[in-house]
Specification:
The complex is a heterodimer.
Chain A lengths: L3 E12 L4 E13 L4 E5 L6 H9 L6 E6 L2 E2 L7 E4 L11 H5 L1 H5 L4 H14 L15 H14 L4 E5 L7 H18 L2 E6 L2 H7 L2 E5 L6 E6 L11 H24 L1
Helix pairs in contact in A: 4-5
Chain B lengths: L11 H8 L4 H18 L11 H13 L12 H32 L1 H14 L8 H8 L3 H25 L3 H9 L4 H38 L5 H10 L3 H29 L14
Classes of the chains: A alpha/beta, B mainly alpha.
Chain lengths: ~260, ~280
C-alpha cells in the first residue's frame, strides 16, 4: 500500500464573478511510496499547490479519492505536516513555542513541550534562537521553525509548498542540503512542490512533471542519483535535459493550440 | 576617487535635543498656560468670565486638599468626586469590553452569529448614546445605573467593531496551520484567532476608554448628582468658571491616565509586535 494514493482527482474552481468554471486538476492518478521524496514540478498555475492542499485537507477535490496511509482525507490533521510557502508561524509565540504548538494543543505540560521541541531546535540548527519571536529572525530561520514544527508532529507525510521560494540563493542551497540530510536521517515521506527544475533534481528521488491548465501529470520520473548530488555531473544534466524537454514539448503544444 | 558618503559625527543640534529629552513634552503646555495667564491678567475679559490659570489651580487645589474653602461646598471633596466618576467609567467600560469582545469575536468568526446579530447591532450603533438619556433615567432613575448604561453604550461599539475587524482579518493561513497541527474548533478561537486579533481589539479598547469618560461626564451633567461632571455643571449654575475649568482639567487628566494604563497593559501583552512596528522604533 502506497503512503499516498491519488485516484482520479479532479478539481474545478467556480469563478462566480465571471460566471465560469475553471478546470484546475484533470484526472490525477499518483502513488507515492513511504519514504519517497517526491517533487511536484510545474509552471505557476498548473495546480500543483492545489493538489498539495487537497492532500493536506485544506481543499476538497471536486471528484476522486485521496488516501493517506489507506485512510480517506477529509480534513487537515497532524498526520500530515505542512510547510507553507511563507513560514506562517504564530507571530506572538517564540521559536520554541511555535515548534511545540502541536503539543500545547494536545495539552502536554510546558516543561515536556520544551524538552521535546529542543531536539528539533537542534535538528534545524536554531540553538540560541529558541526564545526569539518570528519578527526577530530572518526568513530562512523562520522557515526552519516551520519545518521543525511539521517534523515534531512525527507525521506520516510532510507536504511542502515551495518553502524556499522566498529565500536568497545561498540560503536556499543550505536549506536544500539540510532538508535532504533530515530526510535521510528521519526517513519520512515528503511531497515537495516547486517550479524550479534544479531544485526538483537536487531534492527528489521521484519527479512528477505537471502540465499547465488543466493540470495533468505529464510524466513521473524516477531519479536515483546518489547523494550528495553534483549539479554539474553528466547524469544530473541528462536528467535535467529530459525534464526540460518534457516542459518544452508542453509549451510548444500550448503555443500551437492558441 | 573620494568617497561621497558623509561619515561625519551627528550634528550638534541633535545632541542638544537629547539634553532636552523629557522636557520636550512640557513645552507646548507651558506656552499655552503662560499665554492664557497673560491674556487673563490683561483685563480684556472680566476675571469672572475667564479665570487665570493661577485662579483655576487655586480652586483645584482647594477642591483636592480643602485648605481655604475657595471651592465652597466642594472644598476637599475632589477624591470623592473623581472616584465616583472613575467607578462609573470602570463599570461601564468593563461591561462593554467583556460583551464587545465576546460579541465581536462571535460575529467575526461565525456566519450564523453574523447573520443573527450584526444587522440589529449596526442599526443601534448610529444612535448617539446621549439620546438614550431620557429612557436611561426612566428605567434606572437618578444614580449610578443610568451613567453606567450610557458609558456601556459609548464604549461597546468601538470594542465590537474592532473585535469583528480583528477576527475577520486574521491570516487564513494561520488558521490552516492551526488545523494542520490538530486544533479543535475551540482551540482555534482561543489559541489562534484571539491572539491574532488582539492588536485590533486593543485599538478598540483605547477608543472605548475615551468614549467612556465623555459619557460619564455627560451622564453626570444630566442624570446623576455626583462626580466630576456634576460638579462642572453645578459650578456653571453658580458662575464659578474657575471650578468648571478645574473639573475639565481633572477629567482630561484622568482620561489621559486611564489611556496610559491601557497602553501599559497593551505594551506588555503585545510585546511580540514591537520589533516590527513604527511604535517600536528606537528613540
Amino acid at each position: 500500500m502506497a503512503a499516498i494514493e491519488l485516484r482520479n482527482i479532479v478539481k474545478v474552481f467556480s469563478d462566480k464573478r465571471r460566471g465560469r468554471d475553471l478546470l484546475t486538476l484533470d484526472n490525477i492518478n499518483l502513488d507515492i511510496e513511504a519514504n519517497d521524496f517526491v517533487c511536484l514540478l510545474g509552471p505557476s498555475g498548473c495546480g500543483k499547490s492545489t493538489l498539495l492542499n487537497i492532500i493536506a485537507g485544506f481543499e476538497q477535490a471536486t471528484a476522486g479519492r485521496t488516501l493517506v496511509d489507506g485512510k480517506q482525507v477529509e480534513r487537515p490533521g497532524s498526520d500530515r505536516g505542512v510547510v507553507f510557502q511563507q513560514p506562517t508561524l504564530m507571530p506572538w509565540l517564540t521559536a520554541i513555542d511555535n515548534i511545540a504548538f502541536h503539543l500545547k494543543l494536545k495539552g502536554v505540560a510546558k516543561a515536556e513541550r520544551h524538552d521535546r521541541a529542543m531536539e528539533f531546535i537542534d535538528l534545524v540548527g536554531l540553538r540560541g534562537f529558541e526564545h526569539h519571536h518570528p519578527s526577530e529572525m530572518s526568513g530562512g530561520m523562520n522557515q526552519r521553525v516551520g519545518i521543525a514544527r511539521a517534523l515534531l508532529m512525527n507525521p506520516s507525510v510532510i507536504l511542502m509548498d515551495e518553502p524556499f521560494a522566498a529565500l536568497d540563493a545561498q540560503t536556499k542551497l543550505e536549506m536544500q542540503e539540510e532538508l535532504v540530510a533530515i530526510w535521510q536521517k528521519r526517513r519520512c515521506t515528503i511531497v515537495f512542490v516547486t517550479h524550479s527544475v534544479d531544485e526538483a533534481l537536487v531534492l527528489g528521488n521521484k519527479i512528477v512533471v505537471m502540465t499547465k491548465r488543466p493540470g495533468r501529470i505529464r510524466e513521473a520520473v524516477n531519479f536515483d542519483l546518489p547523494r550528495p548530488r553534483d549539479s554539474t555531473s553528466p547524469e544530473f544534466n541528462d536528467a535535467k535535459r529530459h525534464i526540460l524537454s518534457l516542459i518544452r514539448e508542453e509549451s510548444t503544444r500550448l503555443a500551437q493550440a492558441s | 576617487m573620494t568617497s561621497v558618503i558623509d561619515v561625519s559625527p551627528a550634528r550638534p543640534a541633535f545632541r542638544l535635543s537629547r539634553a532636552f529629552h523629557g522636557l520636550e513634552r512640557l513645552i507646548v503646555p507651558a506656552l499655552l498656560i503662560a499665554g492664557w495667564e497673560a491674556f487673563a491678567r490683561s483685563g480684556m475679559l472680566p476675571p469672572a468670565l475667564l479665570p487665570a490659570p493661577s485662579a483655576v489651580l487655586h480652586a483645584l487645589g482647594d477642591w483636592v486638599f480643602g485648605f481655604d474653602e475657595t471651592a465652597q461646598t466642594y472644598s476637599g471633596h475632589w477624591l470623592r468626586d473623581a472616584l465616583a466618576s472613575a467607578l462609573r467609567v470602570f463599570g461601564g467600560f468593563a461591561l462593554a469590553s467583556l460583551l464587545g469582545i465576546l460579541a465581536g469575536v462571535a460575529i467575526g468568526w461565525s456566519r450564523l452569529f453574523e447573520k443573527a446579530l450584526e444587522p440589529t447591532l449596526q442599526m443601534l450603533r448610529p444612535i448617539p448614546p446621549v439620546s438614550w438619556i431620557p429612557l436611561a433615567i426612566i428605567w434606572f432613575g437618578i444614580a449610578d445605573k443610568p451613567a453606567i448604561f450610557l458609558v456601556f453604550l459609548g464604549a461597546f461599539f468601538p470594542v465590537l467593531m474592532n473585535s469583528i475587524h480583528g477576527v475577520k482579518t486574521v491570516d487564513h493561513n494561520l488558521v490552516r496551520a492551526g488545523a494542520m497541527m490538530g486544533a479543535t474548533g475551540r482551540q482555534m478561537l482561543t489559541d489562534i484567532v484571539l491572539p491574532a486579533a488582539l492588536p485590533s481589539i486593543f485599538a478598540g479598547l483605547r477608543i472605548a476608554v475615551g468614549s467612556a469618560w465623555m459619557l460619564t461626564v455627560t451622564a453626570e451633567m444630566v442624570a446623576v448628582k455626583s462626580g466630576l461632571g456634576y460638579v462642572l455643571w453645578d459650578s456653571y449654575y453658580f458662575l464659578r468658571y474657575d471650578i468648571v475649568l478645574a473639573a475639565m482639567i481633572s477629567i482630561g487628566l484622568l482620561g489621559y491616565l486611564s489611556d496610559l494604563g491601557l497602553k501599559a497593559i497593551m505594551a506588555r501583552t503585545l510585546r511580540w509586535q514591537q520589533t516590527t512596528t513604527v511604535q517600536g522604533r528606537a528613540g
